[in-house]
Q: What sequence folds into this?
């Protein structure tokens, strides 16, 4: 019997599940609202319903389920306990791996959602050819995951690769984590809009009103608006400054950039590459490829399934 894995991408808004084969092909998928406001028990019931649907579909095509992998936004310990999750607070303190294992009878592994995006890109996407890489997801915040020697690196406690909370400006913008000057306050969709508000003509800003978002800034930059181009240059500079330090430390083969802002990859890239070249050793910077993600919104789902595949045989 063919074996597949279930990948789960848990978010504050959406709960997505997929049945994934050994080649990374999604055989079946579902999407529903997380409805986390209804509490832990209601959410877990929805999750188990989704898993049962995946198992029923697998049965219908003659597939077995080897394991389950799930990505959760927040800090997930090596023991599987969700220690902190801003978007999924009712799940804090829950060992989701144990819970799902008890209710499904299957091997289960859970991890930080950004880490699983890195796992997905490494297994099936833009990071396939690299043994060491970091995946960076630029959206509302900045998520990241680290692959070293072809394995996901999560650190001694399971909390590693919080690149978005690297301090780049000691007295900088207040971050939701409590620190000041975290990278994600300078590299994110919100940061891009802030830069645009500071560099675009005031008349244009007034005309755009509430419609000024990251996508609109990109459209303006592509149309040749200098202020929008400056906004991307500023964001590229901050990301380059941080990445140069990371590359000098880890000598990675690749950086894979994804998330909503990655649609503007070519606008971000020139200044980013310039900063890395200026601030890291030439032998290190020239040996690192900066590439755009390939899996889009499916990276987390595929990463969860890929991690399940590696853990299911332990």
A:
């Amino acid at each position: 019997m063919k074996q597949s894995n279930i990948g789960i991408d848990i978010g504050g808004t959406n709960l997505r599940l997929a049945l994934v084969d050994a080649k990374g092909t999604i055989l079946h998928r579902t999407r529903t609202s997380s409805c986390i406001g209804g509490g832990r028990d209601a959410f877990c019931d929805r999750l188990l319903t989704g898993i049962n649907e995946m198992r029923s579909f697998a049965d219908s095509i003659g597939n077995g389920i080897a394991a389950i992998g799930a990505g959760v936004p927040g800090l997930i310990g090596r023991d599987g306990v969700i220690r902190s999750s801003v978007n999924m607070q009712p799940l804090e303190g829950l060992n989701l791996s144990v819970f799902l294992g008890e209710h499904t009878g299957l091997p289960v592994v859970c991890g930080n959602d950004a880490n699983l995006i890195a796992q997905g890109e490494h297994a099936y996407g833009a990071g396939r050819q690299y043994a060491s890489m970091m995946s960076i997801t630029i959206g509302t915040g900045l998520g990241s995951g680290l692959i070293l020697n072809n394995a996901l690196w999560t650190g001694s406690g399971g909390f590693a690769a919080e690149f978005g909370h690297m301090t780049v400006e000691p007295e900088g913008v207040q971050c939701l984590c409590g620190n000041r000057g975290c990278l994600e306050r300078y590299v994110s969709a919100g940061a891009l809009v802030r830069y645009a508000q500071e560099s675009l003509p005031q008349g244009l800003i007034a005309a755009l009103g509430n419609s000024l978002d990251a996508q609109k800034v990109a459209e303006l930059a592509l149309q040749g608006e200098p202020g929008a181009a400056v906004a991307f240059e500023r964001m590229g500079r901050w990301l380059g400054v941080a990445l140069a330090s990371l590359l000098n430390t880890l000598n990675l083969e690749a950086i894979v950039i994804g998330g909503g802002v990655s649609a503007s990859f070519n606008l971000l890239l020139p200044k980013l590459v310039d900063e890395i070249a200026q601030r890291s050793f030439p032998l290190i910077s020239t040996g690192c490829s900066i590439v755009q993600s390939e899996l889009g919104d499916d990276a987390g789902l595929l990463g969860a399934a890929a991690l399940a595949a590696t853990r299911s045989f332990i």
Notes: Residues 226-250 form the longest helix (25 residues). The radius of gyration is 20 Å.
